[in-house]
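Hey L., structure's done. Input below.
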Amino acid sequence: MSAIRVMIVDDEELGRQRVRELLRGEEGFEVVAECGDGKTAVAQIEELRPELVFLDVQMPGMDGFQVLEALDPATQPVVVFITAFDEFAVKAFEANAVDYLLKPFYRPRFRAAVERARARVEQAKLKGLDRRILSLIEGVPAPRAADRFVVRQGARIYFVPSEEVDWLEGEGNYVRLHSGGKSHLIRSMIGNLVERLDPQRFVRVHRSVIVNVEAIKEVQVFGRGTYVLVLRDGHKLRSSATFRAAVEALISDAA
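Output:
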């Protein structure tokens, strides 16, 4: 298998050197470019198409988040943010970064980030390999309500019936599907799924959570218009006040 193509973007030479040195201790990576500012980073990413970018947050002229915004979302590389400041962590994960390294970082923490990045890159490669198969599947006219989910696991593509899904959780541009104690990541925005799900079976209880009503064992009042939903597997989900009416309608229907 070919090495993962890596680009290092940091306005400090010592920062780039640290990443470069640590990468030498990891198998399967090739540094194809380095640069010290955002504008150059955008140009080189578009030209060289690295699969993984270690990207500094704060740089002169254009910061790391602006670099990502300037790239075509369809061809964005996997990103690990590196910075000396921890206040950008939430924003980094909202940008779908695979990890966030806080300087100074050492080999154990760096290795954990590298392994997450490796898994994400391999996932992207598999997506490219089976794109033609998925296009055939997605080309089949969908029923009014989704009765099954297409799940990819390595080179396998299989289906999970909707009635076996306990709950769904939004993760940026993906949705994590929980079923029978297992979870699967599918490519979809949670808002897009709402329109495809049977409203008699699924209810949205939070901006990022949809639950199968058949999976709910108990509803507990949490306060201020919020509830805790206890599922049949013991998992607890907290609703938000925004979706209070949906939960209360569920309780009313069950009465």
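The longest helix spans residues 107-129. The radius of gyration is 21 Å.

-- N.
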